[in-house]
Amino acid sequence: MGYPADDLDRAHDPGPDAAAERAVAVADAASEPITVPGDHVIRVGTASWTDPTMTAPGVFYPRDADTAEERLQFYASRFPVVEVDATYYALPAERTAALWVERTPPDFVFDIKAHALMTGQPTETKRLPKDIRAALPAELAAKARIYNRDLPDELREEIWRRFREGIEPLRAAGQLGSILLQYPRWFFPVSESRDTILEAVRALDGLTVAVEFRHGSWFNEKNAERTVRFLSDHDIALVVVDGPQGFKSSLPLVVAVTSPALSVVRFHGRRAATWEAQGIPTVERFRYLYDRGELAEWAPRVGALAKEARETHVLMNNCYANYGSTNAREMAKLLADLDLDRRSADTEGGREA
Fold it and tell me: Are 256 and 227 in contact (CB under 8 A)?
């Protein structure tokens, strides 16, 4: 299944069968939120439930779960949260969100990734709604990809309006978690960028917002304290990440709560060879199965976050086949076994070296 993974040792790419064997011992570990002293909770899930490598027969879903409805219902019986990444590529549809509400328990939560145009990244013009494409100036309509900065003001505002309209059924049902604003590698820690974030927060007024950076300079020696303070001052949740190191897009290990409402941790895997590679399927970038030791290092860090935020969402973005679902279950078991009345000394103060 997928591309050869010669750059990975077999421990981190053992194949779906091996990952499934590991999942057996923790099959129901993530099915309910984990209660933390102080009326806080941790929800553990994955950043997709529809990737073709995940929906392949027998990989994660039962072989007879072959419809969108059956798959989501099965997923929601195993995890209390999911991240929707499809909304990055296409604006959400209100009818689709209404179906998600119908197919999941009332306490199931959806984190929604912001559309590419909302975070300064390009989108394929053909993926925009037909009426928006028709309203584009001719020179833009002819382009294969366009940026938010290229749009007339009224269309830029319409993108935000359509996004909010599309997820309204989730908000109305109390099933909307956060809106993930994932900024690109060329988004640097300057005043203009901070203003851009605040503009997004205003456009999403009333919704919980989480920000993920993709350039290490946000947390270098010069900017780390300012970045955390900026997010805290504006009640914006920082997305804590685990991912490949050694790139300009790599973030140092920063474990901090910047909003009392929510903390988010996203696990991208550590497949360095494909992290910034061009011309490969997205799923190959995240084709990495964490070993138990790597997850165990993170459990006390997540526990520390969970003691400060009312909700903590732990999302496995290594969604190749059943790698993410297996690791999510294993992480949930580690967190359930953690003594959350204690706080590891190496996470005290919010930032690790």
Answer: no
